[in-house]
Design a protein that fits this description.
It is built from eleven helices and eleven strands. By secondary structure, it is of the alpha/beta class. It has a single domain, classed as Rossmann fold. It has a seven-stranded parallel β-sheet with strand order 3-2-1-4-5-6-10, sandwiched between helices. Strands 7-9 form a two-stranded parallel ribbon. Strands 8-11 form a two-stranded antiparallel ribbon.
Length: 294
């Protein structure tokens, strides 16, 4: 298959591209930069200069979006979080609308914080929250919903922090532990949603191959944990102490509104993903951490 990935130069895009190419698929990366053999240059918003290439594609994947781990969350930066997600989505939809040969599948990444930061464990039927992160995912997903009206199957991947040594959130958690100052962050009882990068790629490809898969799926590990339990397991694996608590008020002083990425969270379930028949490679945080740091 010919597969077009917008935002393919990031952590998830690179991992997915490697897996797809290993199985003989041809992957093209929509990028603001030119030079790579498989890159197609665009402005991140419109179809100018590349729109006709959509006719060659079997699958389009929208991974574009500035990381919310960018500090501090100023009003202009929060707007950039929205623009970097919504504008590419609108541009991709426009290219598909104008195409003479449309792709059969559109894959849209989104965030597990769609359900809000507090409440009972969520599944795909849980309504969205009202906070900034939740509403960011709502706008992100809505930007590409029109492809369904064009007859294109669409999958939405609601994703938590993806466990990889290259993930920014993972680095923020691991660094204090590695420096012997690991400990409870805030209350420590806050949920820590996660998925191993191998399972994110595996689940994405599983849903791509399933012709009956459509709509939203929580790409999240079935065994959830609190941030304190997760960090304790990491400290034990690295043979480091777990003793230096950081109070919530201090993190809020330093990180501002961005502190919700660490101090708040909600348990969620991969209900539809399990129903689809996907089998996780890493079901527990212990297995995932052992693979990454063992």
């Amino acid at each position: 298959m010919n597969i077009l990935i917008a935002g393919g130069s990031g952590l998830l895009g690179k991992a997915l591209t490697k897996s797809l190419e290993a199985d003989g698929h041809k992957v093209f990366i929509l990028s603001r930069k030119s030079g790579a053999a498989n890159s197609i240059q665009w402005d991140g918003q419109t179809t100018a200069g590349w729109g006709s290439r959509i006719n060659e594609m079997d699958v389009v994947i929208h991974l574009a979006g500035r990381s919310t781990a960018a500090w501090p969350w100023t009003p202009s930066k929060k707007k950039s979080f929205e623009d970097s997600r919504i504008q590419p989505g609108v541009g991709l939809v426009q290219a598909i609308r104008e195409a003479s040969h449309r792709p059969s599948l559109f894959v849209q990444v989104s965030g597990i914080n769609h359900y809000g930061l507090h409440g009972a464990p969520a599944d795909e039927t849980t309504p969205p929250g009202e906070d900034f992160l939740a509403q960011l995912t709502v706008k992100w997903e809505e930007s590409t919903q029109p492809v369904e009206e064009l007859g294109v199957r669409r999958i939405v991947l609601r994703t938590p922090p993806v466990l990889s040594k290259d993930n920014v959130i993972m680095k923020l958690i691991a660094l204090p532990v590695q420096l012997f100052i690991g400990g409870r962050l805030g209350s420590g009882t806050q949920p820590f949603p996660w998925i191993h990068i191998a399972d994110w790629v595996g689940a994405t490809r599983h849903l791509m191959a399933d012709q009956n898969a459509h709509g939203a799926y929580n790409l999240i590990a079935p065994t959830q944990t609190t941030l304190s339990e997760f960090t304790k397991q990491l400290a034990s694996l690295l043979h480091r102490p777990y003793w230096f608590p950081v109070p919530a008020f201090l993190m809020k002083m330093v990180l501002g509104e961005m502190s919700v990425l660490i101090l708040d969270g909600r348990f969620a379930q991969p209900k539809r993903l399990i129903q689809s028949g996907y089998t996780f490679q890493f079901q527990s945080p212990q297995e995932a951490l052992q693979d990454l740091y063992g």
